[in-house]
Design brief:
single chain, 230 residues, alpha/beta, Alpha/beta knot, Trp Operon Repressor, Chain A, 2 domains, five-stranded parallel beta sheet, 33% helix, binds 6-chloroguanine
Length: 230
């Protein structure tokens, strides 16, 4: 899989992919993540990538030229399954969307900035508009990092224990059960005794009950979905 990220702030994205699972996935050749500086595609002599909105007082808007040039350059190299734009008015990202994107071969993520991009880009080039939640970030870079991270860990081989991505919270609309490690007792605080029983069947049943109960209490919205899909 290949993910190309187009941004005016490539520095922000130099950190998140160089650690842990996402770094290892790249080292193993499971994914290639390439960050492009949008300014490199600007034909403006000051490398500008924004201009005043036609509507008064609306702030700065990302211009078409460098974005189109970047997208066309990438498209001339390979075919892309999706061209994603990160924007607070996009469809809210979730695990289902992460699952679906993790099955694609080549993705472009264009990071939104300023007051937005010239709408003609959204109408003519973008295939998916994604928000990561109902709050406003200064730019789409952190959202692109969130989306990329959630996709990459789902690629087969990215996580050593292959079942662990499938048993994540949200995969079946249930939160994960609580987990514990040694010591079995710390300053009087005890691990639930069933986990020390060595009875795998009882432990699995306990974990499932805990998942259902935590979801019912903490995420009634997810619990409704879970019940509907049973
Ligand atoms: Cl994708 N971009 C910005 N700027 N803010 C956001 C967002 C994206 N998702 C939630 N808030």
């Amino acid at each position: 899989m290949r993910i190309d990220i187009i941004t005016v702030l490539p520095e922000i994205l130099s950190g998140p992919f160089n650690h842990s699972i996402v770094k290892r996935a790249q080292d193993k050749g499971l994914v290639e993540i390439v960050v492009h500086n949008l300014r490199d595609f600007s034909t403006d002599k000051h490398r500008r990538v924004d201009d005043y909105a036609f509507s008064k007082g609306a702030g700065m808007v990302m211009t078409i030229q460098p974005i189109e040039a970047a997208i066309q350059y990438l498209k001339s190299q390979r075919e892309y399954d999706e061209i994603i734009f990160t924007t607070p008015d996009g469809i809210q990202f979730n695990q289902q969307e992460a699952n679906s994107l993790s099955l694609k071969r080549n993705l472009i993520i264009l990071c939104g900035h300023y007051k937005g991009i010239d709408h003609r880009i959204r109408e003519n080039f973008i295939t998916r508009e994604i928000s990561i939640g109902d709050y406003v970030l200064t730019g789409g870079e952190l959202a692109a990092a969130v989306i990329t991270d959630s996709i990459v860990r789902l690629i087969p081989g990215a996580i050593s224990d292959e079942t662990s991505a499938l048993s994540d919270s949200f995969q079946d609309n249930l939160l994960s059960p609580p987990v514990y490690t040694r010591p079995a007792e710390y300053n009087g605080m005890k691990v639930p005794h069933i986990l020390l029983s060595g009875n795998d069947k009882l432990i699995d049943e306990w974990k499932h009950r805990q998942s259902i109960e935590r979801t019912r209490i903490l995420r009634p919205d997810l619990y409704e979905k879970y019940l509907k899909e049973q």
